[in-house]
Amino acid sequence: MIYVPNKDNYKCFVVQSEEVIRAYEDIPNYNTNVNYRDYYIRSDYIYREGTQQFGTYTTLPTCLPSDTITSNFYYRLDFDKILVIFIILAIICVLLPLKIVMRFFRRFQ
């Protein structure tokens, strides 16, 4: 499965390279302009938008099957980094103040 944010806004997905997934708003046809968004999957899913023109002599891209694309965030490539950051913030925001409060109440016993 390949994670793509806002999957429902696009009708066709194409692998441009190892790091880029291109999402087309409409299915590409000859003699049309189609808006797209390139998602850089190894760079925290930043994106670049543009328009591609398909002429008579253009080779149309082959869309990926819809069951290979998901918007479920568990399939993000940076999910492990997100969990590490969450755990560190939880320790700083919960355990550290809890420890300070516990020491403060020990002095009044």
How would you characterize the overall build of this protein?
The longest helix has 28 residues, at 79-106. It contains 1 helix and 6 strands; from the N terminus they run ββββββα. Strands 2-3-4-5 form a 4-stranded antiparallel β-sheet, with no helix packed on it. A two-stranded parallel ribbon has the order 1-6. The protein has one helix at 79-106, and strands spanning 2-3, 12-15, 20-24, 32-40, 46-54, 69-70. It is rod-shaped and about 85 Å long. A hairpin with a 7-residue loop joins strand 3 and strand 4 (32-40).
Compact description:
The chain has 109 residues and is an alpha+beta fold.
Write the layout of secondary structure elements.
Layout (H helix, E strand, L loop, with lengths): L1 E2 L8 E4 L4 E5 L7 E9 L5 E9 L14 E2 L8 H28 L3
Parallel strand pairs: 1-6
Antiparallel strand pairs: 2-3, 3-4, 4-5
Along the chain, the helix and strand elements come as EEEEEEH
Envelope shape: rod-shaped
Secondary structural class: alpha+beta
Q: Please mark out the parts with pLDDT under 50 across 5 or more consecutive residues, or reply none.
A: none
Number of strands: 6
**Radius of gyration, Cα only, in angstroms?**
22 Å
- Arithmetic mean of pLDDT: 88
State the end-to-end CA separation.
57 Å
Q: Widest sheet: strand order?
A: 2-3-4-5
Total helical elements: 1
State the share of residues found in helices, binned by percent. Answer: 25-40%
Sheet of most strands: 4 strands, antiparallel
- What percent of residues are in strands? 25-35%
